[in-house]
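Protein fold
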Amino acid sequence: MDLDRGKPVWPQVADELRRRSDAGAYAPGSRFPAVVELASEFDVAASTVQKAVAALRGEGRLRTVLGQGSFVTGPDERP
């Protein structure tokens, strides 16, 4: 994925993660990739991915369990 560095990057990362999720790349109930893993993949800072993950969590697409990570929610679990 080519990021437009002239615009805020975290929304672009969030859009790509949404697209992947909607395409079935992350099954409901599965553990979501780690922030550092995604930061490396997108070649961005971990804080950028954290903002994207926070947006997805705010939409109900992810739930985070302290000490365990983030997990993908199914459409029936979203608000």
About this structure: The mean pLDDT is 95. The first helix runs from residue 9 to 22.
